[in-house]
Amino acid sequence: MKQLNPNETYPCPVCRSGEVEPLPLMEDTLSCQFCQHLFKADFSQQLLTMMDSEIPLSWYWDGKKWSSPQRKGLELGWESAIAALLFLLLPPLIVGTGAYLFPPVPSSPLAWLPIAWTGLTFLTHLGILLWLAIEYYQFPVVMYLRALLRQRS
């Protein structure tokens, strides 16, 4: 396994397009030459932490690629998957059942609203689940999109 070395370059864990390299005259500080993010390296723990972010994003070097650190005491199992499915399906099911049991008058101008409300409930809960997954796995979506835009231009 190749250890994290302060004198070498590594692929950037954020943009995945540039390379992270040491900054001259700055101890334990690395920078991506593509997305320009600053990182603090902990060479003893093989850990890289982004310094210019609100949320402290971290990655471990496993010798070949960057991986997110495992969170102690917080592991996702089948219970989490069932809770996520219930969170995703139960609210739209309740709204849809209400719309089915008490349908609007077909000729009214807002007859489309119960179906749209059911769909909006589903999309909102799906968005919340996606946001939670992105936060758990520390995937920097905005930074990744910015890096893609820079690469294209």
Low-pLDDT parts are none
Helix and strand run: EEEEEEEHHH
The rounded Rg comes to: 23 Å
The best one-word shape is: elongated
Major sheet strand order: 1-2-3-4-5-6-7
Query: What percent of residues adopt helix (DSSP H or I)?
Result: 25-40%
What is the average per-residue confidence, as pLDDT, rounded to a whole number?
Answer: 85
Class inferred from helices and paired strands = alpha+beta
The N- to C-terminal Cα distance equals 37 Å
* Major sheet details: 7 strands, antiparallel
For this structure, the quaternary state is single chain
Q: Give me the count of strands.
A: 7
Number of discrete helical segments: 3
Q: What fraction of the residues are assigned to beta strands by DSSP?
A: 15-25%
Give an account of the 3D structure.
The chain is an alpha+beta fold and 153 residues long. Helix content is 39%, strand content 16%. The chain has three helices and seven strands; from the N terminus they run E-E-E-E-E-E-E-H-H-H. It has helices at residues 78-101, 113-136, 141-152, and strands spanning 10-11, 19-22, 29-32, 38-42, 47-50, 58-61, 66-67. Strand 1 and strand 2 form a beta hairpin. The protein is elongated and about 75 Å long.
How would you concisely characterize the structure shown here?
With 153 residues, the chain is α+β, with helices and mostly antiparallel strands. It has three helices and seven strands.
Topology of helices and strands:
Layout: E1 10-11, E2 19-22, E3 29-32, E4 38-42, E5 47-50, E6 58-61, E7 66-67, H1 78-101, H2 113-136, H3 141-152
Antiparallel strand pairs: 1-2, 2-3, 3-4, 4-5, 5-6, 6-7
